[in-house]
Structure formats: structure tokens, C-alpha cells
Amino acid sequence: MTDFKYSNVEKEMATYGFDRVVKSHCRMCHGGCGVLVYMRNGKIAKIAGDPDCPINHGTLCSKGLASTQLVYHPDRLTHPVRSVGSRGNGQWEQISWDEALDCIAERILAYKADFGAESIVMGYGTGRENEGVIYRFANLLGSPNVLTAGHFCYGPRIATSIITCGTNPIVDYENHPQCIMVWGNNLVISNPDCYKAEPFSVSLAKGAKLIAVDPRLTRIAARADVWLQPRPGTDAALALGMLNVIVNEELYDKQFVKDHVHGWEPFVQRVNEYPLKKVEKITWVAREKIREAARLFATTKPAAVQWGVAIEQQINCADNDRLLMALMGLTGNIDVPGGQVLFSTPKIRNVGYFCAHRMLPDVQREKRLGGDRFRLAGNFAIINPKCVWDAILEEKPYAVKMLFFISSNPLVTRANAKEVYRALEKVDFIAVSDFFMTPTAELADIVLPAASWLEMDYIADYWKRHGYIFPRRKVVQVGKCRSDHEMLNDLAHRVGQGDHWWDNFEQALDWILEPMGITWQDFKQMDYLRGEVINQKYKFKGFSTPSRKFELYASLLEQWGYDPLPQYREPPESPYSTPERFKNYPYILITGRRSPGFFHTENRQIPWLRELHRDPIVEIHPRTAKKENITEGDWVVIESVRGKVRQRAKLFEGMDPRVVSAEHAWWFPEKKGPAHGWDESNINILTDNAYETCDPAMGATSVRTLLCRICPEPEGGGS
User: Fold this and answer.
1) CA atoms 605, 608, 609, 610: torsion sign
2) Gap between the Cα atoms of 118 and 364, Å rounded
3) How far apart are CA 134 and CA 289, in angstroms?
4) Which domains does the chain have, with CATH numbers?
5) In whole numbers, what is the pLDDT of the chain averaged over residues?
6) How many CA atoms lie within 13 A of 316 on its CB side?
């Protein structure tokens, strides 16, 4: 057993008969927390938070606690399977790993020879920190097409921060901000990306002022000193209004602007186009509240913005991110203790280097789907999903013949789900790697059994920007499950990439760590590694942008033909942009509200987690419910111009009566057969993916804000 500072470990082992405890790092969501895995007779008996871990300090969410139920679930995929007869009929036969990978390799080589490597699309979704191996495989194959959530989730933060200040600015909770502005984020529920709720809560307990920006009265908003409740989809206008106050009341850091900002004068002109009277009308937020929040944030030092994916799944995606960075920078809170720090990773071969982006030939890079339309996304190897569906359905600009989805369920998670279904039905060949038979996996030709985080060795948080990496130690083997890393390393040898891969994946981990002078076996004996923390690096090295300054005026966006200054665009569907539609669909529907037990489409078959949240929930204001003759607990039909779904009503006063809030990613594993009820409550039946409704530079799909109507479900209407 590893030595532990936490004395209760030995007591628990003696009391409950545990025979081993393994330190590892959870991956049940994007958050990732240090854990202690208690073993008994070779099986996992208990999982708890690791008090010695510097990022979660022993706390652990419901998903992490329930990991054991995922690993040992009776419906878990434990062997590769191949569809029998017509694809999607629910008939499968068990095959060996060699048969499965030989078949996939044969298809890859045939499609590459006949249609070009671009006809093969790799894809991943929630991610098991497998993005490095997936991109490496695709780039060495010659395919520029990797389908991710990156067009509207986290990827925009990376893409926009690189062109603004060089890397993603992370809140420095370790040094306790004195003011925290939580914008479109509910980290006490979701523990997203580089963040955990625990250090945020500690900073609040130490007296930090709190500003919450959210259309819903969340637990965070209820605790806030100032709650700004904007009309959904108007975040950019609200941020421009706050910046108008900060600029015109001269609350900005004048020395920082003078020495380190690019594009100050045109930026001032742009924010002056958004006086508070105009912003109030757009956002439905009283101008005095906007002014109060702007003054509080600008004058309380250090201050930080806790941001999230809600602001990225909009037509204003890239500009939302850029405007929040402008608030950080202009108030003097970039790269300062307790502010927004540009952390450095340990000196390893980083994930971008591992991805082998430079090994993708230029002639193939130019074939990236949507790359000429969404150039900010294309510059970071990200594509818009509709480009893939169009290439399958219309074979333009060329035909996509094969899809290989790894930890991805796009039938439920991508906009315009009916179009996604048509594309998955038509494409020649689909391979999937996952834990369970999802609605997407049911449409595949071959499904591979993926290993969970408890079944692999890996470098945890390898891709994050908080400056830490952790050893994820394998503790069990279930059936024939394999990690995506091992699987792709094996497959790479079968398609002629062997010179760029390894005999086994532990050698890849050694290669990543080599610049530190250590091996994986060395790292396994450590708790973590952290990059050197140096504040205000820009004072002696500048920012990693073309101008070497903090770019309010984005020179790369200008070069690509976009407006270099952030602006506000009205949501594609709203009372103002589509007034005729609003007459028949009189409510603003927001989607994507987080739930503690679920990670997008995952975990609905995990007993502990499903018991906490049995049904899909739509929140409706009591006045609206009365108007529509809906009572608490009713099944409700939610309808847009693209379709209708059903969810169960919860009456909730913490929203504007003109707003309805529905959950995303719902399917029903308990419904047997190949459909699993994928179209019953899936909110993406209602969302749109038309190109003109997406962010023009990033291609982010506008799934968060649309128009709907609601009514009680007719008796007998459920399935």
C-alpha cells in the first residue's frame, strides 16, 4: 500500500477488511478528482476522495462515488461485437479483438484507397482523455476530420484565448479571488474542466464577493451579492454593457492598457455602441444592476471570471469568450495571484505535440470539412458536425464513408437529431467504442468494449490548463475491455502507422514524460507534478499572440475575414429575430441544464444516479404552467418547428415566465431494443444546426436558445 498522509485510511482498512488502497484520478466527467480506490479480494469495494489531492482536497461528486456501479454493471460491454444482418436491428455476435480490429483496419485502408483518407471521420464526445491518440491516429492516416464537441464546448475557450492572450486563463482559487463572477456556469453541480466546487466554495467562505450571471436562480445565484438575470442568448450584449461602464468610468487598469493591449481605440468605439439603455432593452437586465456589477468587478482586486459552456453553445460563442477575457484583462486580473492565471504545464511533451498535427499533410488539411467557412475552428482542427452529416447525405464537398466514434453518442448530443439519424443510417460503415450499447452504438457495424478510468494507466489532466498532471493507475481488468489508447495503438500498426506508435502504450507514457527525465513507472510513485508558477509573465515575455500583446482587436480574425472586434448578434430564434414564429412558439426554451449524476448522455443506467433523477425534467414558471393548464409532475409536450418531445414538469419560480428550461441528452437504457427511446425526450429533436445559425468563426451550434410551445401531454400520449 502507498503511504498516505490521511491517517483514517489504515483505520478503514482494518475496520472493513480492505486489503489494498490505490491512489488514482477519476474520469467520470471532465472535472477529474483525486481518489482513493479501496480493494477487497481483487475487486473495487469503495471509492472516496483523496484528501491529499491539491485540486479536490478529498471531495468527490456522486458520479465518482458511483464509478464502481459502472465498472461492474451487468449491461456493460465486455467483448467486441459485430452486427448480424441489417445494421440497427439489434442483433449482435461476439467476436475477438483481432477480428474486430482487422475488420476496422481493412475498411480504413479500402476507403482511403478508393475515396481518400478524408472519407474517414474519427469522433469523440465526453472524452476519456483520449483526444491525443484519436488526433494522432487521424493525422497520421491523413484525415483532417475529427468530429468532437469542441466546436461548442471548451474548444472555443482554447481557440479564443490563444488568439487573445496565448492560453486559457484559469481562476486561481488557491490564492482566493476577492470577487468571483460566475457566468453561465454551475460548477457546484458540474465540476467542469479545470475546476472543482470545493475551492470555489472555500473562497466564498473567506469573504469573496459573488456576481452570478444566469437566466435561472441557481444555488450560486441565490448566494450572490449581485444576480444578473439576462434574456437567454444575450450574454455578449451584457458583457459589452459592463465594459461600457468600466471604460467610460475609467475603472480599467490604465498601465496594462498602455503597455500590453492591442486595439484599445477601436475597442472603445465598439463598447460605446452599447450604452446601458440599449443593453437593458436587449438583455432585460436593469441598467443599474449592470452598472453595479461592473463597478464591483472592476474595483475589487483580485477578481476572476468563472465561465462555462453555456456561453459557447450560441451564435455569439467566440465573441462571448473574447468579451469575458476583455473583462479579465482590462481590470488588471490577468496572470495575477487570485485572478485569472496563465498556468504552465510541467515540462513534458504536451497533448498538442502528441496529436502530431504537423504530420497532417497540407493538401489534406485543406480538405477539412467546413474549414473554409469556420476558420477559427479549422485553425484548431475542429469541425462543425453538420459538415459531416452533409458529406454523408449529399456527398458534398466529397463523400464520407466511415465513422469511428469513441466515447461519443451524437444521435442524442448533436443538434437536429433527426438529420443525425439519417446520416448514421446512410453512411457505409460505423465503428463505436463505448461502455454500453447507446442509441448511436446500436446503429454501428462493430462495437468495441472501452475500459473505464479504473481499468487503465494514463497521465490524468494531460490536456488541461491548470498546471497539474496526475497518475491514473489501473486497478482492475473487466472482461476484454481495453483503453482507447491501447486499442488505437494496436490499430495504428494494422494500417501502416507503426513507425509513429509504440510496442505497448506504456512506452507512449514514457515518451510523454521523457523531457522530465522520468518514466511512467517513476511517475506512478508520485502524487502529481505541477508546472512552475510565475505570475505576470507577459511583463518580460509578452503574450503569445501575433502582436505579443493582449488582443482586444484580434489580428488573426481580421486576417481570416471576420470582424476583429467582438459584437452582439441576436439569437437566430427569438421574439425579436423571428417575431412571426414567436406568435406560435411564445416561449424561449433554454437547454443543457446540468444534473449532478449525469455527464451528458452517460450514467442513466447507473442505479445510484438514476434513482436520484428518474425522469427528464422541464422547468416551467408557475404562472406559465397555470396559463397552459400544466400541474407539477405532468408529462409535458415541448415543441419547436422541428419536432416535439416529452419531459416531466417541475414548477420553478426562479426564471422569467417567458422562459422554459429543459434537460438535454436523455435516452432510456431500460427500454430494450435498438432505439432505447432516443427520440422520446431528446431535446436535440428540437434544436437547429443550420450553418447560418452557428457562430460564424467557430461553427458553434446554437442549441441553448430557441423558441417553443408547451402543453400537457394528451392522455395515453407516452410510450
Assistant:
1) positive
2) 7
3) 46
4) 81-146+347-530 (3.40.50.740), 165-343+537-559 (3.40.228.10), 579-712 (2.40.40.20)
5) 95
6) 27
pLDDT in tens, 580-638: 999 999 999 999 998 999 999 999 999 999 999 999 999 999 999 999 999 999 999 99
Backbone φ and ψ for 473, nearest 5 degrees, come out as: -100, 130
The phi, psi pair for 178, rounded to 5°, reads: -90, -15
Q: What is the grid cell recorded at 271?
A: 463598447
**Strand ranges inside 65-186, DSSP E:** 81-83, 92-94, 120-124, 146-147, 170-171, 179-183
Q: Give the pTM.
A: 0.96
User: Secondary structure of the chain: what % helix, strand, coil (to 5)?
Assistant: 35, 15, 45
Strand partners, 121: 403
Residue 66, amino acid: A
Report the amino acid identity of residue 596. P
Alpha carbon of 681 to those of 174, 416, 422, 644, 648: distances in Å?
Answer: 41, 13, 18, 8, 10
d(CA 335, CA 467): 13
Three cell numbers at 678?
432516443
Residue 618 β-bridge partners: 649, 662
One DSSP character per residue, 14-83 reads HHHT--EEEEEE--SSSS--EEEEEEETTEEEEEEE-TT-TTTTT---HHHHTHHHHHT-TT---S-EEE
Per-residue pLDDT tens digits for 72-86: 999 999 999 999 999
Distance CA 385, CA 613 (A): 29
